[in-house]
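Researcher: Here's a chain I'd like modeled. Treat it as a single chain, no partners, no ligands.
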Amino acid sequence: MKKIALVAGGPRENLVHLQEYQSEHIIWVGIDKGVNYINGEGLPLSYAFGDFDSISDRDRRDLIDQLNTIKVYPQEKDKTDTELALEWALQQDVDEVYLFGATGGRMDHTLGNIQLLHKSIDYKKNLQIIDKQNHITIYKPGTYTIMNDPDRKYISFLPISMEVKGITLENFKYPLKNCHIHLSSTLCISNELIFEVGTFSFKEGILLMIRSRD
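Model: Modeled as a single isolated chain. Structure tokens:
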């Protein structure tokens, strides 16, 4: 399975150990300061995006020497560096895209990056935002199977459309049957699987799933 790992420049303390995700089938892409995180773990950086205003002049020169493909954007633009890199990644012939370094620090960037998950629906690609505490994914209506993960036992569902209709949760501690929730509802926060495998389904709307550690 081909994958792209995008590494943005969020706070280092929120970042997982990137080495844990390394494989021969993954392409590492740095977004601005994220290039330093990739290089710092000795991973094979293939592409870089950004205005690079958060790295030193020396690092910028070294980056240009290191890569054949580097996309430098002006500081004043209509899209963030992360959005530009993500749009490129979703257009590639890959099955899955990871986004690291996208949470923590400035709340505007965190919320903006979470909203970028919508783009995966348009491109029909599996996209995850991953940090030390959470895995965040987005879903359109359908039925989905979910496996128990002791490391991230808390599972929350949040509507990010005005309404999500027909939510059904099976094999959860707090099950639901054909429930409707509106934007701003906290009904489905902090649930847990009680079996090794569970399912969730819904009929209308867009749903965010967050799997979290203690």
